[in-house]
Design brief:
142 residues; mainly beta; Immunoglobulin-like; eight-stranded mixed beta sheet; 54% strand; elongated
Length: 142
């Protein structure tokens, strides 16, 4: 009996419980050209139903809790919740955006734990707007 209970507990613990932990983007972004943003996931302690994520661009320095100019928002739902794979999104900044330093922000709304408690999570990463998209990938802190 103890073996059965231990086995069931181990199987339950092995269920994937991942959450979005950081966002990453190229260090330089060209105005008007689509580029990829990545939401990186890590194992979590409780189940997560990620509902949606939105991305925005703010002049630097900016208040850390704002998205300012919205780049796009995406429904995540069951197919992109509790996955231990990176989730890629294609967005673009306005073609008229001036070159300079900006804060790229992301915010997601998810339902956490057995009670599906609503949680809003935020990330930001400093990027430059320049001639070509590329350079080192920059990540927010988790």
């Amino acid at each position: 009996m103890r073996f059965v209970i231990s086995t069931l507990y181990a199987l339950t613990a092995a269920v994937v419980t991942a959450r979005i932990s950081v966002i990453s983007a190229p260090s330089t972004i060209a105005p008007g050209v689509p580029f990829t943003l990545t939401a990186r996931t890590t194992n979590g302690l409780q189940t997560t139903y990620d509902v949606a994520i939105a991305f925005g661009l703010s002049p630097s320095p900016s208040h850390s809790h704002t998205l300012d100019t919205i780049l796009n928002s995406f429904y995540l739902g069951p197919s992109k919740s509790n996955v231990v794979d990176n989730i890629n999104f294609t967005v673009a900044i306005d073609a008229q955006t001036a070159k300079g330093v900006y804060v790229l922000g992301g915010a997601s709304m998810g339902l956490y734990g057995v009670g599906n408690s609503p949680v809003l999570r935020e990330w930001n990463v400093t990027v430059s707007v320049g001639k070509e998209t590329g350079g080192e990938w920059m990540s927010s802190r988790g």
